[in-house]
Amino acid sequence: MASASLPLPLGSSFAGNLSNKYQITRGRPRRVTAKFLNLRLRTKASQSVGYEDDVALIKRRDVIVLGLSASSILIHSLNAKAAGLPPQEIPRLCDDTCEKELENVPMVTTESGLQYKDIKVGSGPTPPVGYQVAANYVAMVPSGQVFDSSLEKRQVYIFRVGSGQVVKGLDEGILSMKVGGKRRLYVPGSLAFPKGLTSAPGRPRVAANSPVIFDVSLEYIPGLDDEQE
């Protein structure tokens, strides 16, 4: 049975390598016996296997690294959650006991539509229109969620009362208070934020002309205290 052979084109590199050892007739298709080609193919195959082994090794390393990274992220997340502190309570001017007592306090309604309940009636002076006042406040939507608070900022809010520097309901509510007093103001939408209010992340947004609630305490009247001294 004749040996199997494969034709190769003239000028091929494989043919050039073989030309020194094996005679090839010019002008005619050259043939190389299959055993030499098989040797070349086996060499290529062994190189390919080595390359595939390297690729497989790299892939295995990548998988191991990714697996370790995912595990570390998961462990870090679990540790962070386990070590996390409980959510901090928002400071308020009226605690749970105050809320219960406030249910029995009569509601006062003014001509403008503002309503309020006195948590504590103060014993100091009432602020004249145009004077600066120092007050603490906790501002809430009707559901009771806080959207702003001077207590969280740990600084009293100073403004000129009756001068339009704050919403109308807060202005009106403080004008009839006495220093040392605490009051809950139920501010209707017409006396609140006509354009709405964008609150801090995690806090409720105040829609335009929606009612709000202010717990406010009148701490002191800077200008009036100076005059009295």
TrEMBL record:
Domain of life: Eukaryota
Designated name of the protein: Uncharacterized protein
Organism: Cichorium intybus
